[in-house]
Amino acid sequence: MKLFVYHTPELTPTDKVPDCAIAIDVLRATTTIATALNAGAEAVQAFSDLEKLMRVSEEWPVEKRLRAGERGGAKVSGCDLGNSPLDCTPERVKGRRLFISTTNGTRALQCVQASPVVLAAALVNRAAAVQYLLANSPETVWLVGSGWQGAYSLEDTVCAGAIAHSLLQQTTNSVDELAGNDEVIAAIALYSQWQDNLLEMFRQASHGQRLLLMDGHDDLNYCAQTDVLEVLPIQKEPGVLVRN
Predict the structure, then answer these.
(1) What confidence category does residue 29 fall into, taking pLDDT thresholds of 50, 70 and 90?
(2) Going along 122-205, which residue ranges are E strands?
């Protein structure tokens, strides 16, 4: 197994796809997707385009759909939810399909949707992603961070590092055997530095600071947790994620 970390969707190769792609948007899309499926959502359908989300979701009965839209950290007008995982309670999402479009995370999912296997990971379900990789041993794995509007983000890279770090702990592979690019080694180093104080790292990260300005303290606390959900979102058709 070879891991490749790409900090943003724009940095992924355009001439090939991996055996397994893992989209990461810790703050907050992939955390929200995992939380929604854990709370009983029928599926999560991701869109980079809001107009397409509205058009496709219109075909579903009102009682069977929820529209989640976020731009710049704020809820989009006309949507039921923004992008807070804390809104995805069983009472609200159980049995419904969540149609979601966010600033960054849904773009990462769209970027890799042609891969044979597409997963959504965050810190909250890191162990579930690692167990999938250990059980299935895909030859090439891309860990694709969502970043922020094309730029690097600490929280996505630290999550990629958390996945790689756990794989190293649970296999006999060395770092040079596992790492397909230098970014993997850097991600592991970042996680090793911050693994005992992820919340403080989130507070220092630029997107964490944006969310704090929007009273997102509870979201940061939730998203900084590691291995608290056993659910692993997996793509069953392009853009549609279900519980693995």
Answers:
(1) very high
(2) 140-145
Is omega for the bond preceding 210 within 30 degrees of 0, making it cis?
no
Whether 218 has a pLDDT exceeding 90, the answer reads: yes
Q: What percent of the chain has pLDDT over 70?
A: 100
pTM (2 d.p.): 0.95
Neighbours of 116 (CB within 10 A): 11
**How far is the C-alpha of 102 from the C-alpha of 36, rounded, in Å?**
15
| Gap between the Cα atoms of 118 and 113, Å rounded | 6
> Alpha-carbon distance 70 to 16, whole Å?
30
What distances in angstroms separate CA 201 from CA 152, 153, 223, one per listed residue? 14, 11, 12
d(CA 97, CA 61): 10
Pick the closest to residue 194 from 167, 243, 236, 157 (CA basis).
157
Characterize the bridge pairing of strands 97-101 and 117-121: unpaired
Confidence class of residue 105 from pLDDT cuts 50, 70 and 90? Answer: confident
Distances in Å between the Cα of 121 and the Cα atoms of 13, 79, 109, 167 are: 20, 24, 11, 14
As a whole number, mean pLDDT of residues 108-124 equals 96
